[in-house]
Each structure stands twice: as C-alpha cells, then as structure tokens.
Amino acid sequence: MGEQHDIDDDAPIFAIAVAAELSGMHPQTLRQYDRLGLVVPARTPGGSRRYSLRHVSQLREVARMSAEGIGLPAIARILELEDRVRELHGRVRDLEERVRIELERRPGARVFAAGATGSVVTLRSGTRVRRATELVVWRPRHQLERGDSDADPAASAPQH
Predict the structure, then answer these.
(1) Which residues does UniProt call coiled coil (predicted)?
(2) Across the chain, how many H-helices and E-strands are there?
(3) At a CB cut-off of 8 Å and minimum separation 6, what does 112 contact?
C-alpha cells in the first residue's frame, strides 16, 4: 500500500471551473456567491479565485439548503456560524492540550470541575469531563506562598 497523504481542507487548490464542476454549479453562480460573501475563495496574486475542499463542501451545502427553500441571507448566517463553531472547536482542542501539558508540568496541581449548578468536584487525573463543564487548574496555596518561580499572576487569585 502507498503512503497516505492528508490534504488540508483549507488549501486553496481548485480553479473556479474545477470547483464549479465538483460542486455541481455553474462558475457564474460561484462568482455570485463570492460577491455576496457566501463562499469567498482565496485569490492568487493575479486575482484568480482558488477554492479549497472546504469551499467545495460549503458550495454543496449552499445548494442543498437553497433547494430546501432557505434564503441566501439565512444560508450566509448558517455558514458564518459553522465557521465560528469550527474555530471554537479548534480553540477548545488547543486549551485542552495546554491544560494537559500544564498538569504534566505540575504534578501537585489539582483540577476541579464546576457544573451548571455551581457544584465543584475534584477530578481524578485523566478524567474527561463534558464539554459544557469549565475546567480550572488550581495549585495549593503553599505552592504560591513558597513563591514558585513558574507561578503565574492569574494563579495568585484567591483560592476557594
């Protein structure tokens, strides 16, 4: 078997004719969607449109929603919200990784979960919590009073 290469979904690789063919639309429709800000491709230095796999997927989604009777302003808002959700998922993954690294660096750290009701519970190391739960890294006050060199200003807030 050959080596598998992952293609970046956001890499601007398709000219408008190819993107139109892949999405089942006319190139003029893609130009109109670009002007309306619905699906905005990258541009080459010469100004030619370049579409990514994500753009092609969005174009297909626009066609599907439009066929279901959803208006273009609503479709634009849906696409905007989907982009925001994708961005936030990336930020959550980054923050989870930072917390994991921080916990590995600080073996004395404890993690608490605060639920929607306000209850606070200590989590065992490696315990995964629901996404809706807020994580707080806490270090015992004696570590702060010792003046650990890697203490950050946020950690000196009152401990509960």
Answers:
(1) 78-105
(2) 5, 5
(3) 120, 121, 122, 123, 135, 136, 138
Does this model's pTM top 0.70? My answer is no
Residue with tokens 């916990």: 103
The rounded distance, in Å, linking the Cα atoms of 82 and 134 is: 22
pLDDT per position as a tens digit, 69-83: 999 999 999 999 998
> Of 122, 130, 129, which Cα lies nearest the Cα of 160?
122
Distance CA 114, CA 132 (A): 9
Is 2 inside a domain boundary? Answer: no
- Token representation of residue 126: 């490696």
φ, ψ (nearest 5 deg) of residue 159: -90, 140
In whole angstroms, give the CA distance from residue 33 to residue 125.
Answer: 49
Domain boundary among the residues 93, 119, 152 is at 93
What is the tally of structural domains in the chain? 2
